[in-house]
Structures are given as structure tokens and as C-alpha cells.
Design goal:
Blueprint (H helix, E strand, L loop, with lengths): L1 H27 L5 H30 L7 H25 L5 H8 L2 H8 L9 H19 L8 H23 L5 H23 L4 H6 L1 H22 L5 H8 L2 H12 L6 H16 L7
Helix pairs in contact: 1-4, 1-10, 1-11, 1-12, 2-3, 2-8, 2-10, 3-7, 3-8, 4-7, 4-12, 5-6, 5-7, 6-13, 8-10
């Protein structure tokens, strides 16, 4: 019980860090382009994990539990996850140019629903709770984005929903690959590969200026070090103590903290209808994670 509480507290801290990162991304878009921001952010996140990997490997060697890494397999899996991550985060960052932090946070949370849907292609049947979760999420999206307007999404909302689909694909890949390679090393590899892709696109599509990059240095440092590096490490540590269902529900609070952060830091007001939509979408993320009866 004590260990479970310890894990839950660590995961709540993780969710808070991830939620606030939506604000840092939104602020960063006022200075630099999406590829510049994501390229620097994800590369920084990968570099932050390198010392942690070194210390962990050194400790395992002393304990006699160290296992040699299959570098070919690690790079292959890291490349797949990195490409999916690059597409997802880039779509999310572009979306933040046209939508609010709160909407971005909750729409991104749909990845949990899409994980359930994409799981059907892997032979997993659609349970009643999954169906209810999908219906609830669609209703939440309507109240959050469309209520009282015409029946069309804002372009930023569409980009963010697409980002959630690619995040779902990345999550499913990690779930499969992490059984064969070290999770921290896989994360580090995907960060570095995603960062390199974004940096290449940065020079092709955008024209970054050092003064602009320095102008959003705090947002970049937070997103790179806190969101990518530290939060992921906290997630791994927290999940050692918390039960899987408890962990996934707590981490879905990322969307709630994104909305709260947008309200407190960016003064992004939300109507009662939009708040109701957020609550429905949050309910959907919980529904698809509830354990089934044996």
C-alpha cells in the first residue's frame, strides 16, 4: 500500500509536468517555428537521458544484472517510434498555433481512446467499456469544439486529433518493443531520432534566428529537460510501484493539468459548455482503462 501511494505521487508529478508543457509549447510558437521548437526540445530530451543511462548501466554491472544491448534492434525500434513521435509532436505543435492550450491538452488525451481502436487491428476485441469510451469522447469533442458553431473543426483541432492518432501508434509500438529492449534506451533513441528529423526540417522549411531561439529559451529548457527527460524518468520510476490501471488513469490527468495551466498562466477562459466537454473527454479516457470483470 505504501509503495503504491509512493508510485501514485510520482506519477501525479509526471502528469503535472506534462500538462504544463502544453503552455511552454504554446509560448514557444510565438517565437520560433514548430520544427525548430520540437527539434531542439526532443534532442535535448534525449541528451538529458544519456547520463541516466550511463549511471544505470554502471550500477547494473556492479550488481551483475547488466545485459548487453542489441544496438541494431534498438536503432530499428527507436527509428520507428521516433518517426511516429516526430509526426505526432509536430502536428501537435502546429495545432497549438490555431487552438488553445486546454483544447490541445484534452484532444491529445484522445490517444488513449485511439489506442483501444487501433488495438482491434492486433486482434483485440472491442469491449463494452471501449465502445462507451469512444462514444463519450466524441460527445466531449463536440461540446468542446463544435457546440454553438458550425459543424466543422478548427484546423488546430483537426491537427491535434491527428497527432493523437500518431501518439496512439507510438504507444502501441513502445508497448511491443519495450519487451525486447531497455525502455529508457528506447526512449532516448526515439528522442534523438525525432530531434534530428525536426532539425533537418527546420533548415528546409523554417529560417530560425538565434535571437528568437533565445527569446523562448525558458520554454525550450522546460520542454526538453522537464517534459522529455525528467518526466519520462519519473514515469518509469513511478510505474515500478503503482498498479498499471492506477498508473494509466493518473497519467491521463495530464490533460486536466494542461487546461488548468492554460487558465492560470495564459488566462485562456473556458465556457461552461467547453468545461462539460472536457469532463466528458476525461471520463472517456478513464472508461477505456477500467479493468474488465473476469
Amino acid at each position: 500500500m505504501k509503495n503504491n501511494l509512493k508510485g501514485s505521487l510520482i506519477l501525479f508529478i509526471t502528469a503535472i509536468i506534462w500538462g504544463i508543457s502544453f503552455v511552454s509549447q504554446s509560448v514557444g510558437m510565438d517565437f520560433i517555428g514548430p520544427n525548430t521548437f520540437m527539434g531542439i526540445r526532443t534532442t535535448m530530451g534525449g541528451l538529458v537521458l544519456l547520463p541516466f543511462i550511463y549511471i544505470t548501466d554502471k550500477s547494473r554491472k556492479k550488481q551483475g544484472t547488466y545485459q548487453k544491448t542489441d544496438m541494431k534492434k534498438l536503432f530499428k525500434y527507436g527509428a520507428i517510434c521516433g518517426i511516429l513521435m516526430c509526426i505526432a509532436t509536430t502536428l501537435q505543435t502546429y495545432g497549438l498555433k490555431y487552438t488553445t492550450t486546454a483544447k490541445s491538452g484534452f484532444l491529445t488525451a484522445l490517444y488513449i481512446v485511439f489506442v483501444a481502436v487501433l488495438g482491434l487491428f492486433y486482434g483485440k476485441r472491442l469491449t463494452v467499456k471501449m465502445a462507451l469510451g469512444i462514444i463519450t469522447a466524441v460527445a466531449g469533442m463536440y461540446f468542446l469544439c463544435l457546440f454553438g458553431t458550425d459543424m466543422s473543426f478548427n484546423v488546430g483541432d483537426l491537427l491535434t486529433v491527428a497527432c493523437a492518432v500518431f501518439f496512439a501508434g507510438q504507444i502501441l509500438c513502445i508497448d511491443r518493443f519495450v519487451r525486447e529492449v531497455d525502455g529508457i534506451k528506447l526512449s532516448c533513441t526515439q528522442f534523438l531520432i525525432a530531434g534530428v528529423i525536426n532539425l533537418i526540417l527546420m533548415f528546409i522549411i523554417e529560417n530560425p534566428q538565434m535571437s528568437d531561439i533565445m527569446g523562448c529559451s525558458i520554454a525550450l529548457l522546460y520542454s526538453g529537460i522537464m517534459s522529455c527527460g525528467i518526466a519520462y524518468t519519473l514515469q518509469v520510476v513511478g510505474q515500478k510501484y503503482a498498479e498499471p490501471t492506477t498508473a494509466s488513469i493518473i497519467m491521463s490527468f495530464e490533460a486536466v493539468f494542461a487546461a488548468v495551466a492554460g487558465w492560470i498562466i495564459l488566462s485562456e477562459a473556458m465556457t461552461v459548455t467547453q468545461i462539460a466537454g472536457c469532463l466528458l473527454m476525461f471520463l472517456a479516457t478513464i472508461l477505456v482503462q477500467l479493468p474488465s470483470k473476469k
